[in-house]
Design a protein that fits this description.
It is a single chain. The chain has eleven helices and 13 strands. By secondary structure, the protein is of the alpha+beta class. The protein folds into two domains: 45 residues; 253 residues, DD-peptidase/beta-lactamase superfamily (Beta-lactamase, 3-Layer(aba) Sandwich), CATH 3.40.710.
Length: 344
């Protein structure tokens, strides 16, 4: 280790202290380097502090170099090369819906759920035989298609005089019974399927399915729809139509079947009328009618309807509840949509 010679200097008041000056400069330089390093992410400060052997002059030079170095120029922000996405085209209606006799109604897109027109759409009302769509869904879940069910005297007796065309003691497969259930709204078939599916438990399955698919305002008391306690909102019935169209389209197909005969195990054939009033309309995709004194006339109907500015028709669900003229009401609402729907 090299020795140092310490010289004693005579004290000179107010003389210039070179050593003190350099020490101060060193401190200032270190601070400057630290600040520069924090600001620009350099390693000047650490290299100077660790390389103390360079001496005071080295510290000062390094600090001066760091302080005088120009700051990096920030990179310019990229210029957007795409324009904002335009609003997705959709169907709009250009006029208010017509007045109809129904207490509640809704006109909605079957695929998107978009509502084009409505009145009291969230009010639960008696739905009558529209209930049988839920009977079909519950039977599909709880019974095998090839399972045999016999129409009994008791099934016919509880239908308030509207048992349907099928006679007692006739046996059919479940798959065949869907046709009288949905085409002629056969009440004795509804009760036979309810009985085969567990009675009250079958009705609970109907209600559970309704709630599972989002029919939050729906209550059910029996399978035929004769009970005034079978209630749902028009909006609930759009949800039901959407579910059937997606998960059980065969039921919509049955409801628009123009004619059908089902053959009992006895060999007797039963030709079935279709009580869905639009069954002969080429644009009718399916649906269900209903009637009781409390419910008045009800209908769930799905149509393909032309839309202006596009070749693609819209699948439109039209629901009427508490109507005195369901056919007239649905016809008015369908014609209104066709006249005023524009794709923009």
């Amino acid at each position: 280790m090299k020795s140092r010679t310490i010289r004693l200097m005579h004290y000179r008041p107010h003389s210039f202290d070179t050593h003190g000056f350099l020490t101060g400069m060193k401190v200032l330089a270190v601070l400057a380097v630290v600040l520069v390093g924090v600001r620009y992410g350099t390693v000047y400060a650490s290299s100077i502090l660790l390389n103390d052997d360079e001496g005071d002059a080295g510290v000062v030079a390094a600090a001066a170099t760091a302080a005088l170095s120009p700051a990096p120029t920030p990179a310019p922000l990229p210029t957007p090369t795409t324009t904002p996405t335009a609003e997705t085209p959709h169907i709009q209606t250009t006029a208010a819906a017509p007045k109809v006799s129904a207490t509640a109604y809704i006109v909605a897109d079957l695929d998107t759920g978009h509502v084009y027109a409505s009145k009291e759409a969230d009010t639960p009302l008696p739905i009558a035989s529209i209930s049988k769509l839920l009977v079909a869904l519950a039977a599909r879940e709880t019974l095998r298609p090839d399972e045999e069910v016999t129409i009994t005297r008791a099934d016919r007796a509880q239908t308030e005089g509207t048992p349907g065309s099928i006679q007692r003691d006739e046996t059919f497969t479940v798959a065949d019974l869907f046709y009288p259930l949905l085409m002629e709204s056969n009440n004795s078939v509804a009760y036979a399927l309810e009985r085969a599916g567990g009675g009250d438990e079958f009705v609970r399955v109907m209600l559970r399915i309704a709630h599972d698919v989002g029919m939050d305002e729906t209550l059910l008391n029996d399978s035929s729809g004769l009970s005034p306690k079978n209630n749902a909102s028009a909006r609930d019935l759009v949800t039901l139509a959407q579910h059937i169209a997606k998960e059980a389209p065969e039921f919509l197909e049955i409801t628009r079947t123009k004619s059908k005969s089902v053959v009992a195990k006895s060999g007797r054939a039963y030709p079935l009328p279709n009580l869905n009033v639009f069954a002969k309309d080429q644009s009718f995709l399916g649906g269900k009618t209903g009637y009781t004194d409390e419910a008045k006339q009800t209908m769930l109907a799905v149509f393909d309807v032309p839309v202006q500015n596009t070749e693609e028709p819209a699948r439109v669900a039209i629901i009427v509840l508490g109507s005195s003229d369901r056919r007239g009401d649905v016809t008015k609402l369908k014609a209104w949509f066709e006249k005023n729907a524009v794709f923009e």
